[in-house]
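Pasting two entries for a bug report.
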Amino acid sequence: MLQVNLIKQNPEEVKKKLAVKNFKELALVDEIISLDEERKKLQRNVEDAQMQVNLRSAEIPKFIKEGKKTEADKSRDEVLLLKTILSKDKSDLEQKNKSLEDILLRLPNLPSEKVPPGKTPEENEIVRLGGNKPELFPGAVPHWELAKKYDLIDFELGNKVTGSGFPFYKNKGAKLQRALIQYFLDYNIAAGYMEYMPPLMVNTDTAYGTGQLPDKEGQMYFATEDKFYLIPTAEVPLTNIYRDVILKEVDLPVKMTAYTPCFRREAGSYGKDVRGLNRLHQFDKVEIVQLVQAEKSYDVLEDMVIHVEKLIQSLGLQ
């Protein structure tokens, strides 16, 4: 979540970067600034009222001790009135804080300076290419047909038992899936990542912590009775290990890896790109996550990309 001070100090720059992500509600930036000013005013009112309550309350025993009943009664009445005002101001402040947080949650993170503006795949910038792009020979068949031919994955059975997007891995297909997961985990652990086996469901605070909520709720599976969300990626529980935790610099970097099934509703997906293993509602993934100093983030990201490249290359597929 973006910090209010960042927005207030650089409102036009924030709007400019949000526009790169094609964010349409740029007026929210000005609304946040206005709400924060109102919040600060209410905060001052609360502090002033609390101070007056404390002062008047301290006068009461003093007046009683001095036998000044009239003055003591007057101070009591003033304290009661001030507490009524204080209660209302606190309620207004709580509501203002809630409104401000709700709007802040609607703003996406700002993109890097390196991200080019654009709305279509053709406007994407190719950062790196690796290996040789395979050329399909005449008569090549798609992977879902090969999976059926060699009895590796059964999409129809998954559709029967659960629904579209929940495949059954079978025979050597199941063995290959399990072997790849173990191989990836071992490779990551050898590179210094600590393995976790996290829960597959998370609470609302966790979903907010990684930005799945409030705007991606429609893409998540939700257990209504307990109000838990099935995770869309291991990144969600892993990063929330350190939610509300302040790490010392000596503790960095924190390197984590985990295998989990992942669950995504993929609402609205349709067409030729959703057949076979594309756009699954349940799929397996091995994740790597690092927590580092902000100034090292891009260098560490590059290191992580190289790590994954070497992992893929080690399979000898090219």
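Entry 2 (this is the one that rendered wrong in the viewer):
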Amino acid sequence: MDLNVVMKFLTSVTIILMLPTLVASIYGMNVPLPFQRHPHAFLMVVGFSFLLCVLGVMLFIRRRYF
């Protein structure tokens, strides 16, 4: 397998895995955040992270990064 293809794939996977980490980092800060008192806030944040990952994968597949 060509090294360029492997590096392109690994970079794409890293970018996709960065999205839920970014959301979790923002919601881990000790500042007032939207929905922090909502009983289903955790599920909404997890759902938003999952949605971002799915959209990122779809975008990368459309642009043939995978």
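Dev reply: Rendering is fixed now. As a check, the viewer should reflect this: The chain has a mean pLDDT of 90.
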